[in-house]
Amino acid sequence: MRIKLRHLLMFLIIILKKPNTPEAGWFCSCAPSPNCKCLNNQGLTSIPQNLPTSFTRLDLKRNKIAMIQSGAISNLTQLKVVYLSYNKITMIKPGAFANLPQLQVLCLSDNHITMIQAGTFTNLTHLKKVVPVLEPDNNDSGRLSLSWNQITMIQAGTFGNLPQLQNLHMRDNQIKMIEEGAFANLPQLLVLSLSSNQITMIEAGTFANLPLLQTLSLSCNKIQMVRECVFVSLPQLQLLWLSDNQITMIQAGTFANLPQLQDLRLFNNQITMIQACAFVNLPKLKRLDLRNNMMSAIAPLAFDSLPSSLTIKLNGNPWQCDCKMALFWLTKFPFFKDQTINITIPVRLM
Questions:
Q1: Which residues constitute the signal peptide according to the record (predicted)?
Q2: Which domains does the chain have, with CATH numbers?
Q3: 27 C-beta neighbours (distance < 10 Å), count
Q4: Beta bridge partners of 163
Q5: DSSP string, 152-164
């Protein structure tokens, strides 16, 4: 009997729920509160005006907003959280986020934005994170999402004067070019994700002045070459992901003087050669993943400066079995314990 009553109650809740309530559509990031306004999935084409200035959270996900006008929410000076994901935004007018000194979370993912003008986020001094997630979480320390748009270039000064920014994710755009100085003046940045774009080259100085950066993801791009000293100004870097690119060679000094680096992923590239001294002064490196490249041999001194406790993954390369490589496998065997590595034996040795 108790089970039947419970089923009946659930049925009544379903049939009585209004179709236009937030619960009937996409989830609402607002808990019931006089300081939060949930307007997601309402078919809105612009940001409503004359909203109470006491609001600290504004949820406008899954509408049809195409443009954010200058000063559209500038009267809501108490705002800490704004969700604008899953709209049709193509343009953000200058001054759109002016006069929002408390803003911590700004989600703009899954729109049609092609360009972020320099100064768009200027003076959002409480903003700490730029991330791709849409779901609300329990940490409102600050977010600004720009992933899953159509951004093609990051201009110098785009993220100017964001002294508290800690996480910046711009994955799944169409970024081809990063101007020098694009990430300048981000002294607290910890995480930078630029994966799944169309970047072909990383210029020296691109990541300069990021003294606290710990995670850098550049996977799933079209990078063909990584210049020497690109990562030299990242003393706190721990995770560096360059997998699924088109890198053909690792030059001497490419990964040098990164004292905190623990995880370096270079799998699924087209690497044929690693020069001697490519990996220098990496005392904390624990994982080096070079699977599924085009290497048939390795320079004798390529791994000499690496810590002995390191795990190197080399599966999926067309290794040749000759005298030079035999010496390499014998002297470096501890790196490759518990791995199955396929080696091609030349005809002359068969």
A1: 1-24
A2: 34-131+139-163 (3.80.10.10), 199-340 (3.80.10.10)
A3: 16
A4: none
A5: -EE-TTTTTT-TT
